[in-house]
Specification:
By secondary structure, this protein is mainly beta. It is built from three helices and 17 strands. Helices cover about 15% and strands about 50% of the residues. The longest helix is centred in the first third of the chain and has 17 residues.
């Protein structure tokens, strides 16, 4: 029994160590005017939640709401004592976007686990770079930050300030408003890093419909774009990880990664 308990604890902490993905998930993504919804900050993998987080001011560079009327700082409205991270409602129709940028966190993994994770996330180019630097047998010392977006629809007005780049280091831009799309239609998304389009790069599209999760592995075109067919209901997430050699003020990191997520719902 003690051995089984020890194994369960080891598996749990191993899952926590690899559960890098953060995303926003609303209880309801499509609302009527003045209808409230809870916005939740989840940790896990591919929309499989392992933990719900509260707002952490010390880790948050920015937390903004983008609406037709402009950009609004939401940090004072977020919950840092209990989930959900915030409650949202609006008296005005439109498509709203929440955007959060989080500060660095640090992790170190054994070389084999680090390279397994790089393969899973579509970053074989870092494995090649580690080999070139004679670091293949070295632990993976990494710092990572997160760039999270979610789209909320209120009423029938599908206009809003969601298609314009906001200038984040890593950014997923919806070139189409998914709430203008009928079930089964396609929508375009563009991926940016450091003011350049992420061309020919691996990204993912996850869907969770009544507990069933599916994931598509996609490659961006020369303009950093992918086309996703919205052929499932429920929660959708576009996600990407970009890694490079740590640039400055690296402390205990050799590599730095940037994790992007854009979530929305389909009815």
């Amino acid at each position: 029994m003690k051995a089984l308990l020890g194994l369960a604890i080891l598996i749990f902490f191993s899952m926590q160590a690899f559960a890098h993905e953060y995303w926003f998930e609303a209880d309801d993504f499509v609302l009527t005017k003045r209808q409230p919804t809870s916005i939740r900050l989840f940790v896990g993998e591919s929309l499989k939640m392992s933990e719900e987080r509260v707002f952490d001011p010390s880790k948050t560079r920015s937390f903004d709401l983008f609406a037709k009327a402009g950009r609004f700082d939401m940090r004072t409205m977020a919950n840092n004592d209990a989930p959900p991270i915030m409650s949202f409602s609006s008296n005005s129709e439109g498509t709203y976007m929440l955007n959060m940028e989080r500060d660095w966190s640090y992790i170190s993994l054994q070389s084999d686990k680090f390279e397994d994770y790089l393969r899973d996330e579509g970053m074989a180019y870092i494995i090649q770079e580690r080999a070139r630097l004679n670091e293949s047998a070295s632990p993976g010392r990494e710092r990572y930050s997160r760039f999270l977006k979610t789209l909320i629809q209120v009423g029938n007005d599908r206009t809003g300030n969601i298609k314009t780049r906001i200038g984040s280091k890593l950014e997923i831009v919806p070139l189409d408003n998914p709430y203008t799309k009928k079930f089964g239609a396609s929508a375009a998304f563009q991926f940016w890093f450091d003011d350049r389009m992420l061309a020919d790069y691996t990204v993912f599209a996850d869907n969770k419909d009544r507990g069933k999760i599916t994931t598509q592995k996609l490659t961006t075109d020369k303009d950093g774009k992918v086309i996703v067919r919205l052929d499932r209901k429920g929660v959708w997430q576009l996600r990407v990880v970009y890694m490079q050699r740590c640039q400055r003020n690296c402390r205990e990191a050799d590599w730095e990664s940037y994790w992007g997520s854009l979530s929305f719902g389909m009815q």
